[in-house]
């Protein structure tokens, strides 16, 4: 409907900006000033050059509308039952970063989105786990610092992968019928984000990050090679949408290069 149309339009804009951003970065990085000239622009006033590790926790977006509709069509509609649809719980992750003598931070990150659901009905029960892993490469452009505060704008590109599990059981006249299967999906991921930091001296920083993620995973494939279907169409999962997360960055100066 209207919301999907808006999400699609935002997604197209993010992808175009993402491509333009990386092309510009490739063009200007060789032209960036030396450390002496870049110190004032880099959040690191002393021109530090180091490796960092950021751990974060946040609220993700995971569009499981297709999946939940498939649950509706698969679970018997009986009185006395209750269904907890599959929704994202939270997101955690790690990012390895490199800060050089220019106002850019390069990062390699891993994120894990946890989502689960399940339900009971008069003759059985079921549970579903839909964990999503994202590996991406990011570039963050750092703006001029204000005291201990610093801000940046960035883009990332990567790959998302789902390895999920469905387990269910139903009591029949012949006995307990059990059904369990693994499923998977995957697809490219683009995101644009803004980041604010409160510097903790040379030790690191407290980070707050928010942005929009664009992703359309492929059809949901089960272990026998077939795909989940809903009204004749493939069921798909998407993690497109807004996200926000907070983290703590630790700087490792024993890995200084300057």
Write the topology of this structure.
Blueprint: H1 2-28, H2 35-38, E1 50-59, H3 65-74, E2 82-99, E3 104-121, E4 124-129, E5 132-142, E6 149-172, E7 175-199, E8 204-215, E9 221-222, E10 229-230, E11 233-234, E12 241-252
Antiparallel strand pairs: 1-2, 1-12, 2-3, 3-4, 3-5, 4-6, 5-6, 6-7, 7-8, 7-9, 8-12, 10-11
Keywords:
single chain, alpha+beta
Can you put this structure into words, describing what you see?
By secondary structure, the protein is of the alpha+beta class. It is built from three helices and twelve strands; from the N terminus they run ααβαβββββββββββ. Strands 1, 2, 3, 4, 5, 6, 7, 8, 9 and 12 form a ten-stranded antiparallel sheet that branches. A two-stranded antiparallel ribbon has the order 10-11. Strand 5 and strand 6 form a beta hairpin. The model is unreliable at 28-47 (pLDDT under 50).
Helix content: 10-25%
* N→C terminal distance: 54 Å
| Oligomeric state of shown chains | single chain
Strand content range: over 45%
Q: Work out the helix count.
A: 3
Q: Measured on Cα atoms, how large is the radius of gyration?
A: 22 Å
Class based on secondary structure composition and strand pairing: alpha+beta
Kindly state the number of beta strands: 12
Sequence stretches where pLDDT stays below 50 over 5 or more residues: 28-47
Order of helices and strands: HHEHEEEEEEEEEEE
Biggest sheet statistics: 10 strands, antiparallel
| Overall shape | elongated
Mean pLDDT score, rounded? Answer: 76
